[in-house]
Amino acid sequence: MPIGGRRRTGGVTSILVATAVAGGSGYLATAIVGATRPPTDYAAFGVFWATIYLVIAVLSGIQQEVTRATVPVEPGTPAPRHLAFRFGAATALVTAVALAATAVFWAAPVFGADGARLVPPIVLGAAGYVVVAVISGTLSGLRAWTAVAFMIGVDGVLRLAAILTVLAVGGDVVALAWAIAVPFPLTPLLLWWFFRRAVVGRSSLDVGARALVWNSARTVVASVAVGVLVSGYPLLLKVARPDTPDAELGSVIFAVNLVRAPLVIVVLALQGYLVVAFRSAGARSWRLFGRIAAALAGATVVLAAAAGLVGPPILEAWWPEYVLSGWFLAALVASSGLLGLLCVSGPLVLARAEHGIYTTGWVVAAVTTIVCLVAVPGGLATAMIVSLVAGPVVGVAVHLVGLAVRRRQARAADAAEAETQA
Question: Are 219 and 64 in contact (CB under 8 A)?
Answer without folding.
Answer: yes
